[in-house]
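Reply to dn_fold:

You asked what the input looked like. This is it:
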Amino acid sequence: MLGKLVRLGLLGVVIGAGLFWWITTPNVWEPEALANVDGDPDKGALVFAAAGCASCHAVKGTEGANKLSLAGGQAFETEFGTFYAPNISQSGEHGIGDWSFADLANAVSFGTSPEGSHYYPAFPYTTYENMEVSDIADLYAYLKTLPAVETPSLPHEVGFPFNIRRSLGGWKFLFAGKGWGLEGDLSAEETRGRYLVEAMGHCAECHTPRNAIGGLDRSRWMAGGPNPDGEGRIPNITPHEDGIGGWAVVDIETYLNSGFTPEFDVAGGQMAEVVENLKLLPPEDHAAIAAYLKRLVPLPRAE
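and this is what came back:
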């Protein structure tokens, strides 16, 4: 009887280990899904702006054309450790200059490195995974036009158990996967706004509160919450009186293009960077974002 129990226990361990290995295996695109997709660098420049790539990967404090030297190094302090934006310049040694289109697509859509390991979700791939392959191809084509910077990426400062990369597959199993925060019958303009906000703009990464292990609390979609770095709070951007309920569509459009609120305050901190990116988009995209925000469920500010 004891021997049978031991064998059953060992079988359970083997099955459990196999299940863990399956769940935590990094995902990648099937080659046929990426075949015959050609990128346009001019369109890619708009994807680059909408996705806010320079806001994280440019050297902190750089201005103008220097913001396109994507050497990384910016620090993001969280309760799980400090993460540093990597070099994503065209350096073959220190950046992504030798990456294929598939390498970039796997990183953006699944948080999977060219070596087949998991990236930390400080890189917002759980949002970018909703991006169309054609937009990733355009982004790839644009990145190829940018300079190489020979600056090594800084290592993340993450302690046990968060430094076990394989375990990130379990986190992805719980919180990754394509899907929208705003569902329902949307107009073409609202659908475009949803794509800009939820896929490229990754606004929920800051404006939606998180649970104890860092997953987005989708029941509080865009209701704001604590700043991950511990300084201040992220605003509620739902159409509730605690958020932007008093803002007209034109107020939102003006803010996205200039940074000025209806009260003549001005965007600061990280939002100032976001406005710098969004003002590069055409006016119809500003209108689409405003239409999307007005369709959100009004929620009181998350505490």
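The chain is about 40% helix and 5% strand.
Hope that clears it up.
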